[in-house]
């Protein structure tokens, strides 16, 4: 499973701002959306184009437009919502499929409580968004359900990935490409990424 750590200066700068302990909810939220847009730019670099002839200001002109599969963005609730508008700022016509997962505290497995996929999802490229790839449980469960729905082309956008989550995802779904703003050091005993961002959902929604 290829993981693309996007080492663009804008991404590194913005992620550095997000790591500050004293960051405000407003700034964290804005930066999560901006990074969502920048990762979308990278994750869509190879989308196929087709020629189109249009009437321009000086007559007919050949332009290009994106061809092939349409896109569905798949935010994993709740933290994935924090990157959604950034993705949609670059792909405004994308449809949104929402997946809600909660950790069962007894089994520690990710359990689905919401699955609202767009019709015809099997024809679409799915761009999953979730800020933190920690153990990989939520991402693997989401890919499981997208594949069960017939989705064949799936990519994931994350802000920070842990090596443990990358390994788990690679074992479960080696065909899925991940675009990460950073690959960090490790998980701690509570499952938080070190150095990471802390609880991304709490910081996006102001619930910390
Ligand atoms: N979820 C978070 O929000 N942060 C982590 O570090 C790990 C999982």
Percent of residues in beta strands? 25-35%
What ligands can be seen in this structure?
uracil
What is the CATH C-level name?
Answer: Alpha Beta
Question: Uncertain spans, ≥5 residues at pLDDT below 50?
Answer: none
The arrangement of helices and strands along the chain is EHHEEEHEEEEEHEHEEEH
Instruction: Tell me the domain tally.
Output: 1
**Dominant shape:** globular
* Proportion of residues in helical segments: 25-40%
What is the count of DSSP helices, taking H or I runs of 4+ residues?
Answer: 6
Calculate the terminal CA-CA distance, rounded to whole Å.
34 Å
In terms of structural class, how would the helical and strand content be classed?
Answer: alpha/beta
- Total number of beta strands: 13
- Rg, Å, rounded: 18 Å
Family: Belongs to the UPRTase family.
Catalytic activity: UMP + diphosphate = 5-phospho-alpha-D-ribose 1-diphosphate + uracil
Cofactor: Mg(2+)
Function: Catalyzes the conversion of uracil and 5-phospho-alpha-D-ribose 1-diphosphate (PRPP) to UMP and diphosphate.
């Amino acid at each position: 499973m290829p993981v693309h750590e996007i080492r663009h200066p804008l991404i590194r700068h913005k992620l550095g701002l997000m790591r500050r302990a004293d960051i405000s909810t407003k700034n964290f939220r804005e930066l999560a959306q901006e990074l969502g847009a920048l990762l979308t730019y990278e994750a869509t670099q190879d989308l196929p184009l087709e020629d189109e002839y249009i009437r321009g200001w000086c007559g007919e002109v050949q332009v290009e437009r994106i061809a092939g599969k349409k896109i569905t963005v798949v935010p994993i609730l709740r933290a994935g919502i924090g990157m959604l508008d950034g993705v949609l700022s670059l792909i405004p016509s994308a449809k949104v499929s929402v997946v809600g997962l909660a950790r069962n505290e007894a089994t520690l497995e990710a359990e689905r409580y919401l699955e609202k996929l767009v019709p015809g999802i099997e024809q679409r490229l799915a761009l999953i968004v979730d800020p933190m790839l920690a153990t990989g449980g939520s991402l693997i469960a989401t890919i499981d359900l997208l594949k069960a729905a017939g989705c064949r082309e799936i990519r994931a956008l994350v802000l920070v990935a842990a090596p443990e989550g990358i390994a788990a995802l690679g074992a479960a779904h080696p065909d899925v490409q991940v675009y990460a703003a950073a690959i960090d050091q490790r998980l701690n005993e509570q499952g938080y990424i070190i150095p990471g961002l802390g609880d991304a959902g709490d910081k996006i929604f102001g619930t910390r």
